[in-house]
Amino acid sequence: KAFYAAATDPAGACKQPVVNVPDLAPVLTGASALNIGTPSSVTLTVNNTDQATSSGGIVTVTLPAGIELVNPPATCTTSASPAGFSCPIPALAVSGSETFNFDIRAITLVNDAPIAAEVSAVADEVNIGNNTTSMLLSSSGAPDLTSSITGDSTLSVGVAGNYTVMVNNGGNLGSTDGVLTVILPAGL
After folding, report:
1. Measured between alpha carbons, how far is 128 from 25 in angstroms, rounded to an integer?
2. Which pLDDT belongs to residue 135?
3. Three-state SS for 59?
4. Closest by CA position to 50, among listed 92, 78, 99
5. Which residues contact 42 (CB under 8 A, 6 or more apart)?
6. Residues 6+ apart with CB under 8 A from 152
7. Do residues 70 and 83 make contact, with C-beta atoms less than 8 angstroms apart?
8. Greatest CA separation for the chain
9. Per-residue model confidence as pLDDT tens digits over 88-108
10. Percent of the chain with pLDDT over 90
11. pLDDT surpasses 70 at 18
């Protein structure tokens, strides 16, 4: 009985490969270490890895929190929740591929946050075990605080002078604290 069950189970050990069907698989490539605020290019390639031409399909990319889409691929439709986009996949010949280029940007610190891509709606596809992929992203950034002081360059004894102190953040991450110390020369 056990042998018969294993031999007739479609997912069992005796499963024979199905021939002459498409098998689409996505691959994400690009920088995995991002600088906050700086756009980074990502390439999504959908490959037909089996023995028949596909009639098309859809690939959906989902972005993690803290990552925004800067430039989506031209043929794709963006979505706000979850953030990402969906693209129609044209018919792909055996061993053929379609490439989708897009730009993302980290808007906050993230650590091992996955971009996910999933292929769906592929007619006659049997192997759906390779229809998803992901790429982990991390971002870094730091505040860069600078100060400047402007005001009267000449003072008269007994007359008040006016000065303005400015603090600017030229970094790519906000600052929530810090100390500004103004040291006056002797006699003031």
Report:
1. 8
2. 97
3. strand
4. 92
5. 28, 29, 30, 101, 102, 103, 104, 115, 135
6. 161, 162, 163
7. no
8. 107
9. 999 999 999 999 999 999 999
10. 62
11. no
Angle at 63 between CA 60 and CA 67, to 5 degrees: 155
Residues 29 and 47: beta-carbon distance below 8 Å: no
Asked if residue 36 lies in contact with residue 173, where contact means CB atoms within 8 angstroms, the answer is yes
Residue labelled with tokens 């091992």: 112
Cβ distance 44 to 117 under 8 Å? yes
- Over the stretch 104-160, which tens digit does the pLDDT of each residue have? 999 999 999 999 999 999 999 999 999 999 999 999 888 888 889 998 888 888 888
Strands of the chain, DSSP E: 24-30, 33-35, 40-48, 57-62, 67-71, 77-79, 84-89, 97-106, 113-120, 132-140, 145-151, 163-169
- The rounded distance, in Å, linking the Cα atoms of 11 and 124 is 17
> Which has the closest alpha carbon to 44: 66, 19, 69?
69
Tokens describing residue 145: 């605080």
Here the tokens at position 73 are: 């691929």
User: Which residue has tokens 């400047």?
Assistant: 148
CB atoms within 10 A of CB 88: 13
**Burial zone of 9 (CB within 10 Å; 0-12 exposed, 13-18 middle, 19+ buried):** exposed
